[in-house]
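Standup notes
- DV: blocked on the single-chain target, sequence here:
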Amino acid sequence: MNNIANHIFIIGMMGSGKSSIAPLLSSQINIPYIDTDRDLIEIMDAEIQDIFQTLTKQKFYDLESTYFLEHVKGKQHIYATGGGIILKQPNRTMLQNNGVTIFLETSINILYSRIISDHNSNRPLLFNKLNKDTLKEILIERKQHYIDCADIIINTDNKQLNTIVQEIIQSI
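- DV (later): unblocked, structure below
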């Protein structure tokens, strides 16, 4: 499996499974993974929600983009990206030109269900206003970018994590 050129980028909405899939895929194909949100939490020594409130949404996306664009210049990794990584053109260009990009497509109902059941969830865009309409607005804003960047689209609805990982391995 290590003959894959460059990086593997996992993109999709919050709740699509990026942070769960990346370590499983990493252990299966022996490529280290990076969870960009977790790295930013570590770097900033704060939760994403607090970073959003301190920096503003736009500044957070700028920080995320700078981190991502610099880190991708390094050795091969699997990236569990933040859901908004596709909002900036330089990031989309990087996703399209530096590896295999996998869009974990997930329905609104499943996303909502996963996020609601994640009691440790720090979803800054949904802070204090979690509902399906807000989630749907975010998906509508992003979906075409996800599709445009994706080399592979995997629907995650009602699938076990290991099944999704096997689909990814077969597709790459």
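- Follow-up: The chain has a mean pLDDT of 88.
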